[in-house]
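Need residues for this backbone.
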């Protein structure tokens, strides 16, 4: 059977918040019988945008991703309150707006922080994937319709098709170590999870383009890049390690510079602003 999944590409998200606002608009003041109760005007965004900032100066990298209920197949919220939360056959998880009344304990059952407490209605609430619209034949939820970059969209696939698609296109889920089997998938999520090493290379006050930069640790390659016309390089998807890494600058096959670099405590980026090749 085909089920709903949400696909999100972090590199396409521009933090415009259209998805947040469109989703808020759908539920603000709307009691949708059998699906959801109205949400308050302030706070409790059923879809929210998280940001990650790494690097500094001209080499800063800021990324964004929408986060929401993951519609987990192995949902801790359902294990906590099976009487009040249901998983539909199409994969969508819904907190019943009547059965969950007064159940503030449900809020803490989600390890993703995707359940909000509606103080006015005394009700835990999450994004229901706009199930009421999909049941009427809509092809996409409101947030996906409102996204100008196609960073977020929903697909109906069998579980086998979805696993194959995720593997082929590089999608992953949040906190896979929890074993919750989310139905919301992220691509290019390394901007939030992996390390970033960047720098600028000069010689005699001139930017040096075309310099080959390699990064390794204990002889294992971690990444490489070529400096651009501004002498800048950016290496992504670097495993965050406490060990010292070696950064080497090469031109025409010759190593001109080799320096030790490392991530500071709690840091996920290293920026080397003035690497000088004489
Ligand atoms: S993300 Fe949280 S609220 Fe949504 S299904 Fe998973 S455990 Fe439940
Ligand atoms: S609408 Fe699209 S681009 Fe804008 S914040 Fe949402 S996911 Fe990102």
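Answer:
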């Amino acid at each position: 059977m085909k089920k709903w999944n949400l696909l999100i590409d972090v590199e396409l998200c521009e933090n415009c918040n259209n998805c947040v606002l469109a989703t808020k608009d759908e539920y603000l003041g709307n009691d949708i019988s059998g699906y959801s109760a109205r949400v308050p005007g302030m706070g409790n965004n059923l879809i929210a945008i998280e940001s990650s900032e790494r690097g500094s100066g001209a080499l800063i990298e800021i990324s964004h991703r929408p986060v929401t209920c993951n519609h987990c197949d192995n949902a801790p919220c359902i294990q906590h309150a099976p009487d009040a939360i249901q998983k539909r056959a199409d994969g969508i998880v819904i907190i019943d707006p009547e059965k969950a009344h007064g159940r503030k304990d449900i809020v803490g059952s989600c390890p993703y922080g995707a359940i909000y407490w509606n103080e006015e209605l005394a009700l835990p609430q999450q994004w229901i994937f706009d199930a009421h619209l999909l049941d009427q034949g809509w092809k996409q939820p409101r947030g996906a319709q409102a996204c100008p970059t196609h960073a977020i969209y929903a697909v109906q696939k069998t579980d086998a098709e979805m696993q194959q698609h995720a593997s082929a296109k590089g999608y992953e889920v949040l906190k896979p170590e929890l074993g919750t089997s989310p139905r919301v998938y992220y691509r290019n999520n390394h901007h939030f999870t992996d390390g970033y090493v960047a720098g600028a290379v000069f010689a005699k006050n001139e930017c040096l383009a075309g310099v080959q930069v390699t990064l390794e640790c204990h002889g294992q390659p971690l990444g490489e890049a070529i400096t651009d016309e501004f002498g800048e390089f950016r290496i992504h998807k670097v495993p965050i390690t406490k060990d010292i890494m070696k950064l080497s600058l090469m031109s025409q096959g010759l190593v001109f510079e080799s320096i030790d670099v490392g991530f500071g405590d709690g840091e996920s980026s290293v920026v080397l602003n003035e690497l000088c090749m004489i």
